[in-house]
Design goal:
2 domains, FAD/NAD(P)-binding domain, 20 strands, D-Amino Acid Oxidase, Chain A, domain 2, eight-stranded mixed β-sheet, 11 helices
């Protein structure tokens, strides 16, 4: 890694191209030298948040559970994410009601609130030291129309659901964000954030303590039904189990028709996560006065929040953009953030890494049981994985066990794909990136002209149909 020019000057230190979370909780080899058991009650493919959550609850109910992962457990999205713990769905409530009806829309948002509270209680009950903080979040409206859309959606929500949110007009937004570029905010007070690495380490430890066998560097290559059993061929041998659970999400492969079936329903989306070196107190407070997370009402959004007591900030940005190195990605992130927060321009990069999460074509998470293969699945968490995976893992375990508290509006829903889509988004992502950039530029220019804003505002990204989720 070489030095990088970010902001006004050249850094003396290289940008670390791995997650900041790995400094305190690095992923490591787990079970790589252990023999693969020939049989289990349940085999789970994928040792991230989702797979370990399913396994933990099954093991505590007395099941013999084996979890395999093609790499080191937790080294992908579970420790490459932004660490947000929220209750939002990609689609706005008004859009959900329009597409699915008010009853289903209400159930969807009610469960989003449930997964937030489930995760918080789980962390407290299991005594997982992961720096969780219910700090709140603001959505920053990039145009007046976006602010009005947020306000209408919130008003509609409040008719049907208790909602701990309210609107902040542009004249008062300086109390929450150190930027004049936005046109008002929506504040969510009950959401928070955590240390992703420590949360994963705690979940892994609890699963192993419950008797779950976790085996890394073991790829599942083939799946076969033998009567009521599942026969899974791996790179380490064959294992037979009564139940098969797929929790591979964005890392779902193509080496078998069962995996290809689900891969066609997932859109791997990448973004870059950036961590600053410690900031001086004045700069830190000038950006986020109340230390709440800020998230823009855009598709190619910027998200930013406090990170630790050293006055670092963590940023998620540059969605869909390819960069040849972490150094160049870091420079691009600084430029993106500085469009709305000029005081960020001199921020030095500590870490910058590329992570991938899985979107779905209907923008909803999915779990259930595949009718043809009999495999259970928990896939396509659309950026909600930190808080939702534990909740859904508990729900899916209860379904397998035949226990109460197994019902969820997200289970066994139609899992759509598109004609000619094979699961490889290489041709699709540049088209999406170009489309959203052009749309953002057009909407931003119109907003500035219509409202006569006499300053050089950032001309980037947008959508008002959906809320960004991370």
């Amino acid at each position: 890694m070489a030095s990088v020019t970010v902001g006004q000057g050249e850094l003396n230190e290289s940008v670390k191209d791995y997650p900041y979370w790995w400094e305190a909780a690095p992923p490591g080899p787990v079970g790589e030298n252990d023999p693969l058991p020939p049989r289990a009650d349940v085999i789970v493919v994928g040792a991230g948040y989702s797979g370990l959550s399913v396994a933990l609850h099954l093991a505590r109910a007395g099941r013999h559970v084996v979890v395999i992962d093609q790499d080191m457990p937790g080294c992908y999205a579970s420790t490459m994410n932004f660490g947000a713990v929220h209750r939002t769905i990609r689609l706005k409530f008004t859009r959900l009601a329009e597409v699915y009806g008010i009853e289903t829309a209400t159930r969807i948002l009610s469960e989003a609130k449930a997964w937030l509270e489930f995760t918080i209680k789980f962390i407290e009950r299991e005594k997982i030291d992961c720096n969780f903080r219910r700090a709140g979040r603001v959505y920053a409206a990039h145009t007046p129309e976006a602010y009005e859309a947020l306000a209408r959606d919130l008003e509609f929500q409040q008719r049907h659901l208790p909602t701990d949110s309210f609107m902040i007009p542009r004249a008062e937004q300086h109390k929450e964000v150190g930027s004049e570029s936005y046109f008002g905010l929506q504040l969510l007070r009950d959401v928070g954030h955590l240390h992703s690495g420590r949360y994963f380490a705690g979940l892994l430890a609890r699963a192993q303590e419950a008797g779950v066998r976790v085996i890394g560097r073991t790829r599942a290559d083939a799946f076969e039904r033998q009567g009521k059993d599942h026969r899974v061929t791996t790179t380490r041998g064959v294992i037979t189990a009564k139940e098969l659970v797929l929790c591979t999400n964005a890392m779902t492969g193509t080496q078998h028709r069962l995996l290809r079936h689900f891969r066609r329903r997932l859109i791997p989306i990448h973004c870059w996560t950036f961590v600053t070196a410690p900031l001086d107190e004045a700069t830190y407070r000038s950006i986020l006065p109340t230390e709440r997370m800020v998230l823009e009402t855009l598709m190619l959004y910027t998200a930013m929040r406090p990170l630790d007591e050293e006055r670092r900030l963590i940023v998620s940005a540059q969605h869909l953009f390819e960069h040849p190195s972490a150094d160049q990605a870091a420079a691009a992130v600084v430029e993106q953030v500085a469009q709305n927060f000029p005081q960020f321009r001199n921020a030095r990069a500590s870490h910058c890494w590329r992570g991938t999460f899985a979107m779905t074509f209907d923008w909803l998470p999915h779990l259930g049981t595949d009718s043809e293969s009999g495999a259970h699945y928990l896939l396509g968490l659309v950026g909600t994985g930190v808080p939702s995976s534990g909740y859904f893992g508990w729900k899916l375990a209860n379904r397998i066990l035949g226990k109460p508290d197994s019902e969820t509006i997200f289970a066994d829903r139609p899992f759509p794909t598109r004609p000619f889509y094979t699961g490889n988004p290489a041709w699709l992502l540049p088209i999406l990136r170009g489309y959203y950039r052009r749309r953002d530029l057009r909407e931003r220019r119109r907003a500035l002209a219509r409202h006569r804003v006499q300053r050089n505002e950032p001309l980037t990204r947008t959508t008002t149909d959906s809320l960004p989720v991370h």
